[in-house]
Automatic annotation (TrEMBL):
Lineage: Eukaryota, Fungi, Dikarya, Ascomycota, Pezizomycotina
Cross-referenced PANTHER family: AUTOPHAGY-RELATED PROTEIN 27, MANNOSE-6-PHOSPHATE RECEPTOR FAMILY MEMBER
Predominant location: membrane
Domain MRH: 24-249
Membrane-spanning ranges: 261-281
Similarity field: Belongs to the ATG27 family.
The organism of origin for this protein: Aspergillus cavernicola
Subcellular location: Cytoplasmic vesicle membrane; Golgi apparatus membrane; Mitochondrion membrane; Preautophagosomal structure membrane
Region ranges (Disordered): 183-215
Signal peptide: 1-21
Bilayer topology: Single-pass type I membrane protein; Single-pass membrane protein
Superkingdom as given in the UniProt entry: Eukaryota
Ranges of compositional bias, category Acidic residues: 186-205
Protein name as it appears in the record: Autophagy-related protein 27
Amino acid sequence: MRISSISLLSAASLLPSLAAALTFDCAHITKDTYKYNLSPLKGAHSIYHAEIVDGSIVNTTYVLNVCNILGGSATRVHLHCGTSRNICGFHYKYDSDGQHETSFAFPIAGLDHMGHGAKDPEVTRLKTIDAETEGLRVKLSGGEYPVGDKKVKSAAAVVDFVCDPDRSGLEGLNDSAKRLLRAREEAEDGDENSGDGDGEGDDGNGEDKGPFYDGSNPDRSLQFKSFNQTDDESYVLNLSWRTRYACDSYSEGRENSSGHWGFFTWFIIIFFLCAAAYLVFGSWLNYNRYGARGWDLLPHGDTVRDVPYLFQDWLRRVVNTFQGAGSRGGYSAV
């Protein structure tokens, strides 16, 4: 029984470290004595990126929720990434005729549906990388990217939360990729049609299809940077997210914690300092002037000695007052 108890205690002591390795609490991030709260950025957000590869249009929609799992946002029509994931990618490829489509979904960060795997969160202050940049770099792992023949490579995401006091971080995230694409195409298609038909979107038959739109939006706080294979053959999604919540001025650093103390905290501290100074000075004065010893050293020592008795008398008076209020007085009916 003793061995079993020790084993249980050892397992219990490992639970906090295991939980820290599997989860990422965006509301309580501590790094280099600074505390950050990214919970205002919670929720599922999408970012769209498109490119032309070998004459085909390849677009990928990245869906992420750094504070929680994606849930239903991890499913798009017939593509399923896994509701327990934090970041997913939805890959679509269209041939030059725009009719044939191949698509697949792949997880980038998070746990699988059985809770297996690890996100291995890594948090770094950007100032340790570049002294001119303020913010946080968060890396989340646990994903897989298919490379053909039923083979997969590990995947991860690196999100740079860059300090921008003028941005909440949600700017431009409420617009869907289709809405952004339609607005961009309509605006630029009007400009191209007003020309002589030799624009970038001319297909050779005099018909202008408009310029290719890669999904970028400079007004959006969340920006796509890259999705490439690294030296260790894993795939990494790089994003940049400008927000005020990554600023050191919004953190609660231990070095600056005194600046956040309230009025009552300062009042109590000053009160105890004044009381301690009075006792020390009074004791010194009684010792040097009257040669006092023991309780006589304390200023108003007689009063201090009488405090317990005074408290007892006060308490007895309070009890008697309540007991007396319960008894009936005056005349009673005969």
